[in-house]
Design goal:
single chain; alpha+beta; Jelly Rolls; Immunoglobulin-like; 8-stranded parallel β-barrel; 6-stranded antiparallel β-sheet; disordered N terminus; binds beta-D-glucopyranuronic acid
Length: about 625
């Protein structure tokens, strides 16, 4: 018997890799962020992991998931490109490995492994057993690993990651005839930082029954606030309770589950509305089972506010709103795209210092702490999917993959970020185009199939979340017919930089004419979601000249002046908050984009001081 067991173990350990199955991660597993309370455990696996590059992709057939040998060390979270002396441009397979001790008191509860970002695709093993697969950057995924773990013992966690640039992926890479000819071959203007850029955690949920998802839908009726709380649970419990508290109030509402779902609307008299000037958060606690003796508990902080739109403005709680702020990046020396809490805190401080009230999560969903801080500090967020460099021509199989990738991103982004009052609008793509090649002054092309395919993304957002606005960000020369799709028209404009270089007045005049034309035709509010100019820090000229700090400042000033003269412009986001790393190319000196109003290490350029004086005047 013992012998048989040994043979069986031997066979299972040496089974060819093709026998391993990697089911795709179920997006529903990320609906609720892991938390630690009396019913749920959480273990953060951040630290130094084992790491090994696998340029010839032999690790799988050689069974590297059984334990790495001859490995180096890597920090998780962090991008692999910045941590070594020779891996900056490496985008192929790598292996990560760590160990986690699982205590006996976790036994019997479902245990999940959640990877908060593996850019771009990952396969996961626990103790050498295949767990699953996920494709897509900057979004979390999680697997139930309960059946594969050892209790009161150390467990080996192995993650294989690759970030191959491909026209079938989003953001797109190596696009034949694409707009960027840079190295590495990203079809987008930020460095393709790869790997486990965010934390990896283990967490448990209660055994008998647990809360799977909570959706909070705020509304206002005069001075009353309404909060619809939708709860999905797994298990057999049929009742639960919601307790909303804050501002001296405590409101209880019972939940009755039918087929695992329950919904209740809580009324809050004399509600304290969430707004940038008073970002008040109520706490919403959801209990499962008898509220005196619950079987699971999950608490969220949320704000009560509405977002709507008329033909000229975005309205927050029915009041017109003007977005002042930036497009940003998760980008910092050495960390690459790795989570950096001190940088986040600093960025919020600097954004407040300039007088900004908002930002777009260009060009991918950010680490979740950004949204928590925005909720608490009263920042407004446009949450964007990683659909950058999306186009609708060429190989139809690749096009279908891009479509599916964005559908998945939309679902994952909304699942993850739906309860943040700071998020007022979803953005389904940055600068999509019907053609692979963007022609700044084109404007004429229109392809009905491309339009129909692109429209699917708006339908998906509107099906999943009716409580927010939806947009996309249009490129110079993109098809203007697409402006029929969003609630708010968002455009990136660089007249006076990429066209009419050196001529700010001509660029501003062009912007002015174009804005009037778009508004006249579509009658929707407009945000200029990107405008800016590269300024090499410390470069000056007595007469404004491109690449100097003076030019950047004057460019920004001219665009803000144009916006001020149009009451249908509802926001201006400067590109970019800070200088950032990108791929090498002839328009990217030293591999950097210098459109930041702060340097990469967060020192202000002249433009940052200018924004501070202008935005603090109450513009
Ligand atoms: C826009 C892109 C952004 C770029 C920017 C630029 O949305 O990612 O970094 O232009 O050229 O086209 O600086």
């Amino acid at each position: 018997m013992k012998k048989l067991l040994i043979v069986a173990l031997f066979l299972s350990a040496y089974r060819p890799s093709s026998a391993q199955e990697f089911p795709a991660a179920d997006p529903q597993n990320i609906a609720l962020r892991p938390i630690h309370n009396e019913f749920r455990e959480l273990m953060d696996l951040s630290g130094i992991w084992k790491f090994k590059a696998d340029p010839s992709n032999e690790g799988l057939s050689q069974g590297w998931y059984r334990g790495l040998t001859e490995y180096s060390e890597i920090a998780v979270p962090g991008s692999w490109n910045e941590q070594f002396t020779d891996m900056r441009d490496y985008m192929d397979w790598v292996w990560y490995e760590t160990e986690a001790f699982l205590p006996l008191d976790w036994k019997g509860k479902p245990v999940y492994l959640r990877i908060n970002d593996a850019t771009y695709a990952a396969k996961v093993w626990i103790n050498g057993q295949a767990v699953g697969y996920h494709e897509g950057a900057h979004v979390p995924f999680a697997f139930d690993i309960s059946e594969k773990v050892r209790w009161n013992a150390t467990n080996r966690i192995t993650i294989q990651v690759e970030n191959q640039l491909s026209p079938a992926r989003l953001p797109t890479g190596k696009v034949p005839g694409g707009s960027f000819s840079s190295f590495p071959g990203a079809n987008y203007d930020f460095f393709p930082y790869a790997g486990l850029n965010r934390s990896v955690v283990l967490f448990t949920v209660p055994k008998k029954s647990h809360i799977k998802d909570i959706t909070l839908l705020p509304d206002l009726k005069g001075e009353e606030g309404l909060l619809t709380v939708r709860v999905a649970q797994e298990g057999a419990v049929s009742t639960g309770e919601v307790v909303l508290s804050g501002d001296g109030k405590e409101i209880f509402a019972p939940l009755t589950f039918k087929n695992g779902l329950a919904e209740v609307t809580v009324t809050i008299p004399e509600v304290r509305k969430w707004a940038p000037a008073d970002p008040f958060l109520y706490s919403v606690s959801v209990a499962l089972g008898d509220h005196r003796k619950p079987v699971d508990l999950y608490e969220l902080q949320t704000g009560i506010r509405t977002v709507s739109v008329n033909t000229r403005q975005i309205l927050l709680n029915g009041e017109p709103l003007f977005l002042k702020g930036f497009g940003k990046h998760e980008d910092f020396p050495v960390l690459g795209r790795g989570t950096a809490y001190p940088v986040m805190v600093k960025d919020f401080e600097l954004m407040k210092w300039t007088g900004a009230n908002s930002f777009r999560t260009t060009h991918y969903p950010y680490e979740e702490a950004y949204y928590d801080m925005a909720d608490r500090q009263g920042f407004l967020i446009i949450g964007e999917t990683p659909a950058v460099g999306m186009f609708f021509e060429g190989d139809s199989a690749e096009l279908a993959q891009r479509q599916a990738a964005n559908q998945q991103y939309i679902e994952e982004m909304i699942l993850r970020d739906k309860n943040h009052p700071s998020v007022i609008m979803w953005c389904v793509a940055n600068e999509p185009n019907d053609k692979a090649q963007i022609g700044f002054n084109a404007g004429g092309s229109f392809d009905q199939n491309a339009y129909d395919a692109f429209a699917e993304h708006f339908e998906t957002v509107r099906r999943l979340d009716k409580s927010r606005l939806v947009t996309y960000v249009g490129v110079m020369g993109g098809p203007s017919q697409w402006f029929a799709l969003p609630d708010v028209i968002c455009i990136n404009r660089y007249w006076g930089w990429y066209t009419s270089p050196g001529n700010i007045p001509e660029g501003a005049a062009m912007l002015s004419r174009e804005l009037d034309g778009i508004h006249e035709k579509f009658n929707k509010p407009i945000i200029v979601t990107e405008f800016g100019a590269d300024a090499y820090p410390g470069m000056h000229a007595q007469q404004v000249e491109m690449f100097t700090e003076e030019y950047q400042m004057e460019f920004i000033k001219a665009y803000l002046d144009v916006a001020d003269s149009k009451d249908y412009v509802t926001g201006m986001h400067v590109w970019n908050f800070a200088d950032f790393k990108t791929s090498q190319g002839i328009i990217r000196f030293g591999g950097y984009n210098y459109k930041g109003v702060f340097t990469r290490d967060r020192r202000p350029k002249m433009a940052a001081h200018y924004l501070r004086s202008r935005w603090n005047e109450g513009d």
